[in-house]
Amino acid sequence: MGNLPGRGDGPAVNSAYDDPVQILVTGGAGFIGSNFVHHLVANTDAYVTVLDKLTYASSEASLRGLPEDRVRLVVGDIADAAVVEPLVAESDAVVHYAAESHNDNSLSDPAPFVQTNIVGTFVLLEAVRRHDVRFHHVSTDEVYGDLDLDDLKRFTEDTPYQPSSPYSASKAGSDHLVRAWVRSFGVRATISNCSNNYGPWQHVEKFIPRQITEVIEGRRPRVYGDGLNVRDWIHTDDHSSAVWAILSHGRIGETYLIGADGEKSNVDVVRAILRHFGRPEDDIEWVTDRAGHDRRYAIESGKLRSELGWEPKYQDFDKGLAATIAWYQENAAWWSPMKHETEAKYAAKGQ
Ligand code: NAD
Ligand code: DAU
Asked: To test the ligand 1 pocket, which listed residue (55, 238, 297) has its Cβ within 8 A of the most ligand atoms?
């Protein structure tokens, strides 16, 4: 492949790649996976197969406009070995995004989280083991549990696992499977644990798009508990460039934390959204807290930056947020159909 960035000039580049690279992206019709597919098309010569079950969280529209001769969508379940096997066999690499991704849903119905996030990852690992295919596992900082608000610490690759929710426990389980398959079977895998993403195409169940669309529809943003919980925000474009850096340059068997120094309390994010719309900053609906709500996430991404030379492009959260708000204003036709059902689910829980 012609333009693997830095090929040959960094440590442990995946020299197994030959032209052209065929990459299987699981969950590639979701918020972050689809962004990565666009990143691949724009920055590499790779051919991409998206394997996606097209759950409620997916959006085929997020893949629109991509060249048909380079990107194809296969609708199927990562936990179905018969579907996975031939797709992995024809691939040079698998980048694994597919997951049930929403904490609140994992509290009301954990079963699909165990099935997709743990069993699905197991099925993929068995296939890449059989065919000796490079594997990158996309995971979350939530596997480390949470930090206190007054703690100066941030998560590092050495922080012990202590997941709080069924979602984060299922992602932790999948990370452990990947490590075991590397050590026991020599699978050529890397893992990344990223902080909270924001940007276009994010489902309106998630915090930032929910609040933006609440305000657009003339209601108040809805904040859980005391609103002081902190998340470490990163634009999804920056997540994609980091995953590509790891896939193309990362050392096999290693874990890389991905973060862009974007710590903000939830109430500060909501105030920024309200300011953007010229609404009073205290125009907030305080709602029932999430059970087991993690207090603070914060990422120390020094390893990724120093080893692979990665830097985020979005250093200014307010600018990234303004662009995201503009996108939701322009794309009401995309999110409106899912908004009503999403709000009905929240209303039933007093949120
Ligand atoms: P998402 O919910 O927007 O998308 C998930 C995609 O996976 C959807 O397209 C869905 O149809 C697909 N999928 C679900 N179950 C499947 C199955 N059994 N087989 C095939 N496809 C299936 O999620 P997202 O926010 O884009 O997250 C993608 C990945 O990134 C997840 O692994 C998540 O844990 C991880 N992650 C997310 C964030 C974040 O802030 N959203 C941060 C760090 C890591
Ligand atoms: O840290 C990475 C994780 O970030 C990913 O692994 C998950 O897939 C992703 O969903 C996200 O998890 P969070 O639970 O942090 O994100 P969520 O958008 O659900 O909530 C962000 C914060 O906002 C959290 O503290 C809960 C709060 N919240 C959320 C909603 C939906 C509110 O206060 N009000 C809301 O309406």
From this structure: 55
